[in-house]
Design a protein that fits this description.
By secondary structure, the protein is α/β, with parallel strands linked by helices. The protein folds into 2 domains: 136 residues, Rossmann fold (3-Layer(aba) Sandwich), CATH 3.40.50; 159 residues, 3-Layer(aba) Sandwich (Rossmann fold), CATH 3.40.50.1370. The chain is 40% helix and 13% strand. A 5-stranded parallel β-sheet has the order 7-6-5-8-9. Strands 2-1-3-4 form a 4-stranded parallel β-sheet, sandwiched between helices. The longest helix has 21 residues. The protein starts with 19 loop residues before the first helix and ends in a 9-residue tail after the last helix. Norvaline binds next to helix 6.
């Protein structure tokens, strides 16, 4: 890992834009070490609080197993059972938890709440998904592509088919940072936020990644090296289900759409999948699905992130 100072927090994938190549290489080493049964307890004595306002299978489990594997401990704190749910402020919660733990991962509805927690905390805060971004997911996604393309992103093109949501936001920034070109097909009215697109374009200027947008899934996937989709209805968007089902009709990765991609193209999905909506059983269970490796890679990516943010820190970074 590089000698530059670790980022204070991981609120956006842009916070680690410059060190993504090192983070991915380190995650790959941690994965190989685990397979050989040689995990080093690098976070012995460290504690990580996990605050979740929304459900989770992968993020929660990978954080807990990662901390355990690295010799540390994770505490799952459902926001409903914290005093946070009864009106204690996010800032006060941050100050108190900072006296007990070495880091806080937070899955929230609102990005502004994650920022507020980070402002109040004296320990690193990790965004475990909010309405704006899902940075930890993208480290695992890039690791999955890195493995299949032997570390070379430049000259490759990823096609996104679906919502202009939190996952696409982080993916745009992450792809731009590593030089991976991305074409996103989104339905009209579901485009990614312009400020995120602008930030991704600025990152892409330094790497040569080409970022493009269309409303036509077939145009996006033509000759692509990998396809990626996510649910039509994200957590928090449930009231819009009917409108979204209508708008996303045709934004499905199925065998016909996949046949238009490059011959070696594989399929990514952050999961959970809604089979029959954004992706078919046939693709999910087919030989071109990389989704199970991608899900496993959440664990290895999480370890690299945790080591980077927690390991070298011996004292609180600030005292609110
Ligand atoms: N991909 C992902 O974040 O999954 P969970 O919601 O299960 O954590
Ligand atoms: N976009 C999805 C991702 C789930 C991991 C959501 O926010 O619900």
């Amino acid at each position: 890992m590089p000698t530059r100072a670790p980022p204070s927090d991981l609120l956006s994938i842009a916070d680690v834009a410059r060190e993504l190549p090192d983070l991915l290489a380190h995650a790959a080493r941690l994965k190989a070490a685990r397979r050989r049964g040689r995990t080093v307890p690098s976070l012995r004595g460290k504690n990580l609080a996990l605050i979740f306002e929304k459900p989770s299978t992968r993020t929660r489990t990978s954080f807990e197993v990662a901390m355990n594997d690295l010799g540390g401990h994770a505490l799952y704190l459902s926001s409903k059972e914290l005093q946070l749910g009864r009106g204690e402020t996010i800032a006060d919660t941050a100050r108190v938890l900072s006296r007990y733990v070495d880091g806080i991962a937070y899955r929230a509805y609102r990005h502004t709440d994650v920022v507020e927690l980070a402002r109040g905390a004296s320990v690193p805060v990790i965004n475990a998904l909010d309405d704006l971004e899902h940075p930890c997911q993208i480290v695992a996604d890039l690791l999955t592509m890195h493995e299949r393309w032997r570390g070379r992103f430049r000259g490759r093109r990823l096609a996104w088919v679906g919502d202009g949501n939190n996952v696409l936001h982080s993916l745009l920034l992450g792809a731009a940072a590593v030089g991976l070109s991305l074409t996103a097909a989104v339905p009209p009215g579901y485009e990614p936020r312009p400020d995120v697109v602008e930030a991704a374009r600025r990152l892409a200027e330094g790497t040569g990644a080409a970022l493009a947008f269309t409303h036509e899934p077939r145009e996006a996937v033509r000759d692509a090296d990998a396809l990626y989709t996510d649910v039509w209805v994200s957590m928090g968007d449930e009231a819009e289900r009917a409108a979204r089902e209508a708008a996303f009709h045709g934004f499905q990765i199925n065998d016909e759409l996949l046949s238009r991609a490059g011959a070696d193209a594989f399929v990514l999905h952050d999961l959970p999948a809604h089979r029959g909506e954004e992706i078919t059983d046939s693709v999910m269970d087919g030989s071109r699905a990389a989704v199970w490796d991608q899900a496993e890679n959440r664990l290895h990516a999480q370890k690299a992130i945790l080591e980077r943010l927690l390991r070298s820190r011996s004292a609180p970074r600030r005292r609110p």
